């Protein structure tokens, strides 16, 4: 049973993400500004994490050098604030279905960035190396298919319209293929920022191992950065009001459950699904699992790999 615990945790996390997708979609469809949403998310995450930081690490955390604080500031800006804001802009040009699909490129992008920074290695002559290389190419190919091809729409017997506030705007935006392609590249840019954040924070954690305090500081700095950006973009006070509605629920849920770790990917419940988009998504997911399989095999004991190779040779 213990061996299945990681899989149960992954299923639980995906269920939490699914609820976050729906609530985020509802908040945006009720007219909430993306930049304001990011600020509230980061602020709620900071408030949620601060008591735990004081309780578990405040007394044991080492003093933070000023240069480390500066690194965390820029890491928060590019990896959290800018990543979330850019991703929201990408949603304007495309659909939330594609936004959710492009997040599957994140492991491949992260591995590629780690490879450039010489944190990871790629052994072409090994099975794991070939699998990771194929996975990276497949992820990029799947993303390209999603960006450049849509294909005929798949119509289901029952098409459930749950959130249709921006339905007309979505169809109007999708009519411009140039805007769609631009949105795809913007989303990939956001995932690149997030992947770079995942890679670079490993260097900071080595020098400053208090992970909970490190996380809380990032949320705090990101909330300040998001506030400045939101004030510059949206100065209508009415847009800042939450009220007792789905906007408040989405902000609280996304801030507490996910905090700074996830972008506001949302599910496009209203839009029709293109056949080519489905195929592109499948290619992208296969590439993702190819990278993960190669990474997992790389960490297997050498004796186990030799036994598997002999068995496959027979």
Automatic annotation (TrEMBL):
InterPro entries: EamA_dom, EmrE-like, WAT1-related. It is found in: Membrane. Residues 7-135 form the EamA domain. It is a multi-pass membrane protein. SUPFAM superfamilies: Multidrug resistance efflux transporter EmrE (SSF103481). One of its GO terms (molecular function) is transmembrane transporter activity. The chain crosses the membrane at residues 7-28, 34-56, 68-90, 96-117, 129-149, 179-200, 212-233, 272-292. It comes from the Eukaryota. Keywords: Membrane, Transmembrane, Transmembrane helix. One of its GO terms (cellular component) is membrane. Belongs to the drug/metabolite transporter (DMT) superfamily. Plant drug/metabolite exporter (P-DME) (TC 2.A.7.4) family. PANTHER family: WAT1-RELATED PROTEIN. This is WAT1-related protein.
């Amino acid at each position: 049973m213990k061996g299945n615990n990681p899989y149960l945790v992954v299923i639980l996390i995906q269920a939490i993400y699914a609820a976050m997708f729906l609530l985020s979609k509802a908040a945006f469809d009720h007219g909430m500004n993306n930049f304001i949403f990011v600020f509230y998310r980061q602020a709620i995450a900071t408030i949620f994490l601060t008591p735990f930081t004081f309780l578990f690490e405040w007394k044991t955390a080492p003093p933070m050098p000023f240069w480390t604080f500066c690194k965390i500031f820029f890491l928060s800006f590019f990896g959290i604030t800018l990543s979330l804001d850019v991703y929201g802009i990408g949603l304007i040009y495309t659909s939330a279905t594609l936004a959710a699909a492009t997040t599957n490129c994140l492991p491949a992008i992260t591995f590629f960035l780690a490879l450039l920074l010489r944190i990871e290695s790629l052994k072409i002559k090994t099975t794991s190396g070939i699998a990771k290389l194929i996975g990276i190419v497949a992820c990029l190919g799947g993303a390209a298919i999603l960006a450049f091809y849509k294909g005929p729409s798949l119509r289901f017997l029952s098409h459930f319209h749950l959130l249709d506030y921006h339905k007309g705007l979505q169809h109007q935006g999708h009519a411009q293929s140039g805007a769609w392609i631009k949105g795809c590249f913007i989303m990939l840019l956001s995932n690149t920022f997030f992947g770079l954040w995942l890679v670079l924070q490993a260097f900071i954690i080595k020098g400053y191992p208090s992970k909970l305090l490190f996380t809380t500081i990032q949320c705090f700095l990101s909330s300040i950065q998001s506030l400045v950006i939101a004030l510059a973009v949206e100065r209508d006070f009415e847009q800042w009001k939450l009220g007792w509605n789905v906007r408040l629920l989405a902000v609280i849920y996304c801030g507490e459950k996910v905090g700074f770790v996830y972008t506001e990917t949302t599910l496009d419940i209203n839009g029709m699904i293109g056949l080519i988009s489905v195929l592109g998504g499948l290619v992208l997911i296969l590439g993702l699992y190819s990278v993960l399989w190669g990474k997992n095999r790389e960490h297997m004991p050498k004796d186990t790999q030799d036994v598997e190779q002999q068995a496959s040779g027979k």
